Write the structure tokens for this entry.
Amino acid sequence: MTASPARHWGLLVLFLVGVVGAGMLIGVNNPPGDWYAGLEKPWFTPPGILFPIAWTILYILIAIAGWRVFTRGLGRPKARWVVQMALNLSWSPVFFGAHLIGAGLAIILALLVAILLFIAETWRVDRPAALCFLPYAVWVAFAALLNGSIFLSN
């Protein structure tokens, strides 16, 4: 038995509010601050204003992908989605909150693996969900490079 259209779209709204809201809450509670400003950063560090814009767009895509795999009942992709979300939400408190650059690097590399596994597992069964994660994978790969460069320079 399938969910009613209203319930189906209601779940999308729930995913959007939950994922974007959680991301914003983590960001507001773990700002870069003076500690980050004082770190040596590579030449390719983007301006700070880019991060909240990029992450808002990515969180919308993450929410859509999660909504798709959860409403379709895709077991392994659902588990992969939850794992990547946990890793995603743990990075800022570790890197910005606890100032643990190396632990942040480990988390972001694990996050990249989780994203790539999600894409691989959903590619054949839910291509739109997989496609939602492609820009996320690119951004997290870039963020991992940035994190790694900061780790090596500090």
Q: What stands out?
A: The mean pLDDT is 95. Residues 127-153 form the longest helix (27 residues). Helices lie at 5-29, 33-37, 50-71, 75-97, 101-122, 127-153.
